[in-house]
């Protein structure tokens, strides 16, 4: 296929799509050649957000309909979506100083059943996050806690805020963002559990305080905070953390804390750090912490 040239004679070729950075772990940004191609119009942003969440993969037309209009798209849905895609291509072409046809052939491509936004895998933050997470999880499975920790940290450092924080999400994006945010929290808990196992409570104490405040009924995070405080020699604060959490759970849920958290409390009272340092670790972690 011949290269397509823009108004200034620039060719887009493969280099433009390979230079495209897509960021969804925070505010949405799509950049190419250091030029921001993220539109300001809400509907275009919503379409681009779903394409970005699935960068380098096919985004089905039906999913775009459902994202924009829910379960009852209007009769004009196909034409309206076609308009939004055309507007996106024109705004990208303007940012890159190339013809819109170049964008449709190289960056935002029509495929049978939908569209594909092409991006540099090394500059797509969600793909980077998944690769680092795979490395971290593999190191944890093979009992290499000290190797897993920096991989988890590198993965979590890619986040700049909640996924697609500046997008008004419809039903499809809402599910995707919730899953991504839950993955972030789960990865954070794994990292903290390993740091506690390695005897580094001060490395995670401030982060745990912030997380516990953000998730006031989350037992595992509060349990990890109790462990970190106890290991740091602040047993009274650990006990206060338990009692404050218990009051909230009783008041808001009408329940008592789980038996697991109550056992942790007893471990802390009896000063058994070799036991309660295992809090939050799954079977893989506990195998190499014994």
Describe this structure in words.
This protein is mainly α and 290 residues long. It folds into 2 domains: 12-185, Orthogonal Bundle (Arc Repressor Mutant, subunit A); 199-290, Alpha Horseshoe (Serine Threonine Protein Phosphatase 5, Tetratricopeptide repeat), CATH 1.25.40. It contains 14 helices and 6 strands. The strands form 2 sheets. A 3-stranded antiparallel β-sheet has the order 1-2-3. Strands 4-6-5 form a 3-stranded antiparallel β-sheet. Helix 8 packs parallel to helix 10 (219-231), helix 9 packs antiparallel against helix 10 and helix 11 runs antiparallel to helix 12. It starts with 12 loop residues before the first helix and ends with a helix.
Q: Which features characterize this protein?
A:
290 residues; mainly alpha; Arc Repressor Mutant, subunit A; 2 domains; 3-stranded antiparallel β-sheet; 14 helices; elongated; AfsR/SARP family transcriptional regulator; DNA binding; AfsR-DnrI-RedD_regulator; two-component regulatory system
Would you summarize the structure shown here?
By secondary structure, the protein is mainly alpha-helical.
Which structural category fits the helices and strands? mainly alpha
- Quaternary structure of the protein: single chain
What pattern of helices and strands is seen along the backbone?
HEEEHEHHHEEHHHHHHHHH
CATH architecture of the largest domain: Orthogonal Bundle
Q: What is Rg?
A: 24 Å
CATH superfamily of the largest domain: Winged helix-like DNA-binding domain superfamily/Winged helix DNA-binding domain
Q: What is the count of DSSP helices, taking H or I runs of 4+ residues?
A: 14
Biggest sheet statistics = 3 strands, antiparallel
Predict the CATH topology of the largest domain. Answer: Arc Repressor Mutant, subunit A
Distance between the termini: 60 Å
Strand percent estimate: 5-15%
Helix amount, in percent?
55-70%
Q: Overall 3D geometry? A: elongated
Low-pLDDT runs: 1-10, 286-290
The strand line-up of the biggest sheet is: 1-2-3
Q: Quick check: average pLDDT? A: 89
Number of strands: 6
What is the CATH class name of the largest domain? Mainly Alpha
What's the number of structural domains? 2
